[in-house]
Design brief:
Length: about 260
């Protein structure tokens, strides 16, 4: 093709038809420019396709991570609800001056459980490495960053601050820990038995209480247990709120993937 155009150009020059040659030369330049523009357009199209593939990969990874986090939310919420129930039940037993029974032992030992929120962030780390603007949907991008940078960190901060009270409890309750494993038939009906709670039962985590009569009159410990009840309620509410945010982001990502995939 190039040889063909060269022959025409040489013929026009040899015949001294300068005006025709000039028009031809302009047309040739236009064709070259058009070719370059087409090549650039194809290159941009390929680059956009690559970015879109990366975006899809990242969104899928984040979605899978968030689905994994839901299991941790459910487990933690169960533990916190059980801690709330256990605290309230023990305080009621002390108030009513009830005699010891193994159900109270389950409640007492449940105060030792400290659920921790452990989340996966592989997808979010990949997003940060590729640049936040790889996600074109502004709403989804903002919700993802808010979930990881604000909501998840807020929850972790609450958990870390609670460690102070956990230590206070541990030092106070240690003298009352018994060594006798509690029988399964004495599990209180008020406790929610599922997930990691079943693991605690499997490894015979729960024990009896010793010096129970002294425990009933340890009002400093009663105050700590009341605080545990309050903190467990609050932390359970925060877990539930962040879990709902998590679910909303999952739904948003799945809808976006249907559009761009």
């Amino acid at each position: 093709m190039i040889k063909f155009f060269r022959k025409i150009r040489q013929k026009l020059l040899s015949e001294n038809k300068f005006n025709k040659y000039l028009l031809y030369a302009i047309g040739e330049i236009i064709l070259v420019v058009i070719g370059i523009l087409i090549a650039l357009q194809v290159n941009n199209w390929n680059e956009n396709n690559k970015k879109r593939e990366i975006e899809i990969t990242i969104l899928k990874e984040i979605r899978n991570n968030l689905i994994f986090d839901l299991e941790d939310f459910e487990s933690n919420i169960t533990h916190l609800e059980n801690k709330t129930t256990s605290s309230a039940s023990l305080l009621k037993a002390f108030e009513d001056d009830l005699d010891y029974n193994d159900s109270l032992g389950y409640f007492f030992f449940y105060l030792k459980t400290y659920p921790h929120f452990n989340y996966k962030s592989n997808g979010y780390k990949l997003l940060l490495s590729k640049g936040l603007d790889i996600i074109k949907n502004d709403t989804i991008r903002n919700r993802i960053t808010d979930l990881y940078e604000a909501r998840y960190k807020y929850l972790k901060t609450w958990e870390s601050e609670r460690i102070v009270y956990n230590n206070a409890l541990e030092s106070k309750v240690s003298p009352y820990y018994g060594t006798q494993v509690l029988m399964l038939e004495h599990i209180p009906d008020d406790l929610i038995i599922k997930g990691s709670v079943e693991t605690l039962l499997k490894f015979q985590f729960f024990r009896n209480i010793r010096n129970y009569e002294i425990l009933k009159k340890d009002f400093e410990l009663h105050g700590i247990i009341k605080h545990i009840e309050t903190m467990s309620k609050m932390l359970s509410a925060i877990h539930t709120s962040v879990k709902n945010d998590n679910l909303e982001v999952i739904n948003m990502i799945e809808k976006e993937l249907e559009i761009i995939s």
